[in-house]
Amino acid sequence: MIPARFLTDASLEFVARRLRFLGHDVVTHRGARLEELLDAAARDGRTVITLSERHPRRWADVPVVRAVRGDAVATVRAVDAAHAAAGRPFSRCPRCNAALHARSAFEAHGEVPGRVLRSGVPLTWCPTCGQWFWPGTHVAHLVRWLEQATGRALAPPGGADGAVADDGPPPPSRGA
To answer: Could you list the residue range(s) of the whole structural domain that residue 23 is in?
Structure first.
C-alpha cells in the first residue's frame, strides 16, 4: 500500500491525533467548510476524512473517507486498515503533524524535566512547533487504545533502538 495523506477539519481532531500517533500524515484545517477541505485536498493530493455525507460533483476526483459519527475507534480502524501509514507509530507530532526527530538528553536540557532526562528514555522533538515528546506513563494507555482500535500490536515509542524518526537539524537554542 502507498501511504495516503489525509486532511480533515477540527471536528475530527481526536481522530486525526490518533491517526498521527499511528504514523499517518493528517493535516487539520480549523474552521474550514467541506468545499474548502475538498479544494485543499485536490491542491495537495490528500484524502479528506469527513463526517459529511455530501461529495459535490465538482470534487468527484478527490478521495473521501467517511468518518463514523461518534465512533472514533471505528474510524481509526477503517482508515488504518485501508491505508498505509507515512511512518512508524509515534513518528509524527500529534499537535501539528510534522515528522518528529530523535534528540539527545543534552539537546533537551532546560526544555524537558530533569527526571525525564535522567531516566534515559528516548526523546523526540517537533521542528515545527518545538514540542518535546517522550514515552511517559500516559503512553501505555494510548498504546492500549490504539491496539484495541487497530486490532494489532504496536511497538512502544522509540522501538528497540530508541529512534523515533530520522535525525534532522538540532533544535534552535533558547537563550544562553
So the answer is: 5-82
